[in-house]
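Regression test case RT-17, inverse folding.

Input:
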């Protein structure tokens, strides 16, 4: 049950930093088309994203809520391109980790990260996170 999740943004972004361990602040936002599916998809609340462990074509993308000091969703998988990942595992806020199917995509404006979006399914339940980091960058 995949539906359009990714946003097209054209805001300026900050200086590019090494992506083997990148943490960016922003806000999880969802367009109206995505919000129509909120009854059957868990939409993460978040204000930060961490892109980690881009070694051997593997990655971990964690969507955090700093005010609660918690990772809301962590998507783990294999990088299939410089800005795409096939999700193989998903860790929920309560620490439950399970095999998953889905994908993540990093969107850029002028080479800088502007949006990070992930959508994955475990045991028939969909989980999504879509963070806009472009408005927090100078």
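Golden output:
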């Amino acid at each position: 049950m995949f539906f359009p999740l990714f946003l097209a943004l054209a805001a300026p972004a900050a200086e590019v930093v090494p992506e083997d361990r990148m943490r960016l602040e922003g806000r999880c936002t969802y367009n109206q088309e995505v919000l129509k599916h909120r009854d059957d998809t868990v939409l993460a609340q978040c204000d930060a994203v961490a892109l980690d462990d881009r070694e051997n074509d593997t990655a971990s993308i964690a969507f955090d809520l700093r005010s609660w000091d918690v990772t809301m969703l962590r998507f783990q998988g294999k990088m299939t391109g410089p800005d795409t990942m096939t999700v193989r595992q998903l860790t929920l806020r309560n620490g439950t980790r399970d095999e998953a199917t889905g994908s993540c995509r990093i969107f850029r404006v002028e080479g800088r990260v502007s949006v990070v979006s992930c959508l994955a399914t475990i045991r028939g339940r969909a989980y999504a996170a879509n963070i806009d980091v472009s408005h927090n960058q100078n």
